[in-house]
Amino acid sequence: MLIPQLESKWSVVAGVLATAFVLTMMAAGARPLSAQTPPHAASNAPQSDSDVSHPVDRSQDQDQESTETLKVNVEVVQLFFNVKDKHGALIPHLNKTDFDIFEDSKQQTIKYFKAETDLPLTLGIMIDTSGSQLRVLDMEKEVGASFLENILRKKDEAFVISFDVDVNLMQDFTNSANKLRHALNEAKINTGGVGCSGGPIGPQGPIPCSSSGPRGTALYDAVYLASHDELSHEVGRKAMILLTDGEDQGSRLKIKDAIEAAQKADTICYVLLIEDKQFHYGYGEGEMKKLTQETGGRMIAVGNKVEKLRKAFDEIAEELRSQYDLGYTSSNANRDGGFRKVEVKPKQGDYKIQARSGYYAVGKGQE
What we know:
four-stranded antiparallel beta sheet, 26% strand
């Protein structure tokens, strides 16, 4: 049963040129999502001075230089990345002169560089509640809640989405670890049916609800929705953590649509591959690796071991607090909406760079 729509950024935006997601609430407290928006989102990069002054206020320090937005007089591309040695250990204390930046194989001039560990962080916790997660869901809830309690600081925010046959916003942006824990605890296994109304709009128009095969784990749809309708409106450091076995079953969108939405929202994707061997057949790992590599994150296989899950969360927390922040002005001034490949290269040392593969050069009026 539907109740009146919530007054939030998830409400319907009337207009001919754009239609937003419809957010409703079920009796159990979760809010099912259905997508009726074009598959594009406002990108964090490149941006102009007028674009980056986004109405996100998490600090009262108005007299200090904002660390949440980059205010410059030119369009810039912003890139958060980690640097690791050959053993996978994070390398701190590097500076601007240690790197070169390339866009579509053309070297660019670094405009700013900073080793950031305290920029506000926006997190999305995405928890798989399909039938295959029955015996590992309680573990995911407990360890995930503890992770949020430990990582969230005063200016940080997080939200929780569950996905199965539906995609449900369990808790919108909040700094409250208690609310986030409650949302995770409310997540329940769902293997029931789903209606056909309100399917997402894909690159070629509306995607039919009657996709081939059963609909059981709308993983790609969940990544798209979280990226497009939540994270694309935020600024600063953003990450999405998926707790799943990696198998999509019945999404109306494809993995490429999910990756594109995450890239346009400038969101790092991590996947904690949690498998109950009774259900898992080894599918989906390739897609999850692609999702994480293209967005600057990682896939970490944890099986069904709580110790491995805790360790994986600890590694993610360390990476998110040890990022470098680099910005440059693209030598290609054409804002045609096309994808630009970006590569950060160390000038010396056997370093591994963990960064997103590129960005979409979206100009004003193309959002």
